[in-house]
Amino acid sequence: MSSSSIRVAHPVWRALGLAGLLVFTLWGALALWYPTAGWPQRVLPWLWGLLGLATAGALLARRRAGRALAWTWCLAAAALLIWWQSLAPSNDRAWADDVARMVYGTQEGSRVTLHNVRDFRWRSDEDYTVRWDTRTYDLDQLDSVDMVLSTWGMPAIAHTLVSFGFEDGQRVVFSVEIRKERGEQFSELGGFFKQFELSVVAADERDILNVRAAARGEQVSRYPIRLSRPAMRELFLAYVAQAEALRETPRFYHTVTANCTTLVYDMALAIAPGLPLDWRLLLSGYLPEYLYEHGALDTAEPLQAWRARADITARLAQTPLDDAYSRAIRQDGAARATP
Predict the structure, then answer these.
(1) Which has the closest alpha carbon to 165: 148, 187, 188, 182?
(2) Is 304 exposed, middle or buried (CB count within 10 Å of its CB: 0-12, 13-18, 19+)?
(3) Transmembrane residues, as ranges (predicted)?
């Protein structure tokens, strides 16, 4: 390499090194902020950030202290990474009421009994009546699957729920959610930094749909999915198996790789191995387009008509929370999809 090439390469590598230092400093500050609480959260991210900025400034100015600061930063970075790898998910924390229990199931033949089915009555997001049930479902009577999307101001981002309907009128909704501790609030950014554990919630529609539409003011849409009965059964059992797995081995929620949509995709992939990976699995507000393209929605009518008909927000907010709730919220809505 010529001397001129070395002179050009040197500042390039220097700039890349400084950029990497600053990026890792930002990552480290967030990594120290989100999983921690109390004085560590108030102190450690700022100390780490100041060390990174001081190191970058000294190296940029080519001060003598730059090398010593760089070694100090490297040692601190190594300690940070060791600590980060030591963080482990747990099922033993002071959980918020709505995720305090974990659903699990037992099966005898075609009958599955779910324990800890949530059936809260929500007057607001902070005012509710706690109720957990044990319910039995006959998989031979399983005859419908609805995908429910809930959005809250960002149309591209949605929470995905799956509702299973039975011929005897029973319904149960599965939802992959963060398992919040008391006082915690959901944060997309915190979901990148081991702030939350992962949970599968099984709930009555009067609980989990009503809280999103009426108590939280979210927009809720329902899409009947075209699935064969064997596929419905496999998807139901996949949720039960996922809930059991998380009960036995806790796992961190991740905003991109382990969330309410990607886990549904993983379970559906076991049923339909050819199901393609798609960017709309991340921007889940566009899932209806994905389902439409792959035949999970009836293509006899335009997608725009599906979207308009799927919105049940107003109906959810106005429907009494009685035994006719599930039937009432489906009146004048999308017809049941059949494969």
Answers:
(1) 148
(2) exposed
(3) 12-33, 45-61, 68-84
Helix (H, G, I), strand (E, B) or coil at 70: helix
Is 75 buried (19+), middle (13-18) or exposed (0-12) by CB count in 10 A? Answer: exposed
**pLDDT tens for each residue of 283-329:** 888 888 988 888 888 888 898 898 899 999 999 988 999 999 999 99
Sign of the Cα torsion 40, 46, 49, 50 reads: negative
| Contact assessment for residue 223 and residue 63, using Cβ atoms and an 8 Å cutoff | no
Query: Which amino acid is it at 229?
Result: R
CA neighbor of 251 nearest in space, from 173, 191, 327: 191
Domain boundaries, the chain: 4-86, 97-329
Helix or strand or coil: residue 143?
A: strand
Q: Which residues are within 8 A (CB) of 289 and not within 5 positions of it... i.e. 6 or more apart?
A: 280, 303
Q: Look-up: residue for tokens 């959610």?
A: 177
